[in-house]
Specification:
The chain is mainly alpha-helical. It contains eight helices and two strands; from the N terminus they run ααααααααββ. The longest helix is centred in the N-terminal third of the chain and has 24 residues. The protein is elongated and about 85 Å long.
Length: 225
């Protein structure tokens, strides 16, 4: 039950956990089969004989590095994780839930499974460890700095926040605010030709976007065009 105890205890998973308690006999049988597989894998590791009990799905690139198969330690981590993933997925699929509850549970458990992948942690990722050795720890230092930055911002950075800056390489079409109130700012852009039309063109960008969504960079600026 330790694996289940660490599974997501969200509102979406609550009906699933309740179903497991109601069907304790089925849960016990599935647990016994799961522990048997894990025991075989552990025994093979101790005996120096790798047992092939679980393989990633086709197209799963998380375990593409050769060390995941050639190194006994990483091979054990890979297969143990895949066995646990399969066990949890089978528990979800075998649960007596309505379609909506099962889909919510499937989603919640899938997020937890993906988050717990050994490839996500430096100490259990052979590629990360190799890079740490080759860089003499510099890669770990950079990773820790990125982690601390994300903690301070309260969110995970997916792009370089400093790559773009309004006025430097975003919204660089010349113009000025000629009117504003509590709701809007009216920007009049400078003409790019000697003659202009008597009737101005009013551009109203989507209110859910930044005002410069149509003036990102010179090469793709609708405003400049």
């Amino acid at each position: 039950m330790r694996l289940l105890a660490s599974a997501p205890a969200s509102a979406g998973a609550a009906p699933w956990l309740a179903d497991l308690q109601r069907n304790s006999a089925k849960l016990g049988a599935m647990q016994a089969a799961y522990f048997e597989q894990q025991s075989k894998l552990w025994s093979g590791l101790l005996a120096g004989q790798s047992a092939s009990l679980a393989d990633p799905a086709p197209g799963d690139r998380r375990f593409s590095a050769k060390e995941w198969r050639d190194n006994a330690y990483y091979d054990y981590l890979r297969q143990s994780y895949l066995l646990a993933s399969r066990y949890l997925e089978e528990l979800v699929e075998g649960a007596e839930l309505d379609a909506q509850a099962k889909e919510r549970t499937r989603f919640a458990v899938r997020q937890w499974i993906d988050a717990m992948c050994p490839a996500n942690f430096a100490a259990t990722n052979p590629e990360a460890m190799q890079q740490a050795l080759e860089s003499r720890g510099e890669s770990l230092t950079r990773g820790l700095a990125n982690l601390m930055g994300d903690v301070q911002k309260g969110r995970i950075s997916q792009t370089d926040d400093g790559a773009f800056e309004v006025g430097r390489n975003l919204a660089v079409t010349p113009g000025q605010v000629v009117y504003e109130n509590e709701l809007i700012q009216l920007i009049q852009y400078a003409p790019t030709t000697a003659q202009v039309a008597a009737r101005p063109l009013l551009i109203v960008p989507p209110c859910i976007n930044k005002y410069y969504v149509l003036d990102l960079q010179p090469e793709n600026s609708f405003v400049a065009h």
